[in-house]
Amino acid sequence: MSAVIRVEGVAKAYGDVRAVDHVSLEVGANECLALLGPSGCGKTTLLRLMAGLETPDAGAISIGGADMTRTPPYGRPVNMMFQSYALFPHMSVADNVAFGLKQDRLAPAEIDARTREALAAVELEALGARKPHQLSGGQRQRVALARCIAKRPKALLLDEPMAALDKHLRERTQLELLALRRRLGISFVVVTHDQDEAMTMADRIAVMDKGRILQIDTPRKLYEHPVNQAVARFFGDINLWPNGRAVRPEHIALSCVSGDVEGVVTDIIYRGAGTTYLVRTQEMTVRVLRQNARGETEAHKGDTVFLSWPADAARTLSP
Fold first, then answer.
1. Residue 231 placed within a domain
2. pTM, whole model, 2 decimals?
3. What's the CA angle centered on 157, arms 151 and 163, to 5 degrees?
């Protein structure tokens, strides 16, 4: 994999707090890498280090093969899109998109061509004369994205880009960004705390905690082969027994007749396509996910049921 961004042993501390603890990773050409983790895990600080908004205490950052460790933000071939979008309210959509190009002192004809190209890429070419307050939240986000891609960066750095959008618009925008990235051939680094967003958008995901990367891999491998209990807990629902045995809820069969482990249904959560059963056993409460299908026998709250799962569905994970 040809690396567009290479981070080598980067560390950043604020007083006694080590926000990024000697992290190393690579972002490939036309790859989307998601930085995933709980609040305070260091993912936004790592993104800001890539952007040049923070200076590392140790380590090196290269972009496009050139050392950028001490290069200021305006000298780096990347653009960062913030949660707030940071659009100028007094400027038109087109002027917002053109702002960075004017700062770079490009020729007027080049500015006009790149602005039109960027607006077309996000399907807003007909709204160039509008002001930000005349747009929907999703449209304002696309203006901010157009402003970034107009400068033709080697990579886009996105900090919680869908945080302000409602669920349906967020899902649609995730797919739009995915299609846009593939069409433009630009690498993305996306910070998020939403595992579904990371799985939808990313080729690889770096799961972070306490300033370190716990595991970096494809969404499928992270879900099916977490390296420890911390990754397993964060990346989807999982049942963890006291001895470290782990089984995903969808791998557990629930029967009203027979099985390996006996328990009692304490709660039922209906989710449309599937139903989650909480079953109290001798050892612990087990989560069981069943896909809803017509004709299946349903268990009810208070029923005695039996659980079983294939041997290869269980793994023993370290803390």
1. no
2. 0.85
3. 120
